[in-house]
Amino acid sequence: MEKPAIKPKNPNFSSGPCSKRPGWSLDKLSGAMLGRSHRAAPLKAKLKEVIELQRTLLGIPADYKVGIVPASDTGAFEMAMWSMLGQRGVDVFAWEAFSGDWLKDITGQLKLDDVNKYQADYGALPDMSQADPARDTIFVWNGTTSGVRVPNGDWISESREGLTFCDATSAVFAYDMPWDKLDVTTWSWQKVLGGEAAHGMIALSPRAVARLESYAPDRPLPKIFRMTKGSGDNIKLNAGIFEGATINTPSMLAIEDALDALNWVDHIGGVEASIRRAELNFEALEEWVNKTDWVDFLAVDEATRSTTSVCLNIVDGWFDALPAEEKTPFIKAMTKLLDKEGAAYDIAGYRDAPAGLRIWCGATVSVTDVKELCPWLDWAYATAKETVQG
Known about the structure:
Number of domains: 2
CATH architecture of the largest domain: 3-Layer(aba) Sandwich
Number of helices: 9
CATH topology of the largest domain: Aspartate Aminotransferase, domain 2
């Protein structure tokens, strides 16, 4: 097959860290306040600005607490689980790598006894209607490693007694989030914003704050997990976390980069525009998938297909007949060809997922680049297949 003539101008289709916004450069970070204490008033103000810009852009209710915490989305979600789980039984919905990790931590590390497990294979979604309103609920909104997302929040009870814990790291700024149904929500800047990693975000509903101030789990908590101060009947939320006084030292370069990304979202028209950009990118890739006989979506149900981390299967008969141990090397051969040509970087599927491709279509990606990527996917597949088949 002839090599395509046009390459994507931006070949960064990695699902995390993700592509920087269009027009980004290191010069955009020249306003970073480096070499100073993050406790100083101007730096603390920048941290607070990151918090409040996200609250405003995402439409997070004014009575929710929003804070910056250590260790990206993983740190934020672990902080929430270790600080808050155990008062009630827990329903855990797991269908890909990270939701599976939360299940493992709940049963193997926290060692909670009253756990209901609702699991599905890669490409499918568990029956979310099984969530018991009397229990806590653990789930991811967008399964980054499977390309499967929760289509809406209709299954979450408005009269629930338990708390909902939502890992939304590749969902915020890409979907319209039902904040009134989300009690604990975590995300990072490295996904749809294309920001730098290492910092996480956590949003707590008033009900979640009430849990923190009334329930102290009988387990040790590392310093970076502690969201409260005091003990006994005098437990209070550590308000500083939600005012820019982070638990550990933040990178002010990363803060400046986050501000740049947030201001870009505001400039293009807010979260509605960032959602639409992801949808257009997905639609461009979907059009190619629908007319291409060797590839299909890993997500079986159209309603649950992610518009950000799009996971694809090879459905050609000869590939299905390959031994399992030969499928991943074939995908690596494809992606190596694309990498060498500078047409696409880092698009192999997640290591624990079925052998396939994973293409980021979040808001910082250009729809033109997605369209120009597709002929290169055909070329890489045909070239790698010809090599394998001799």
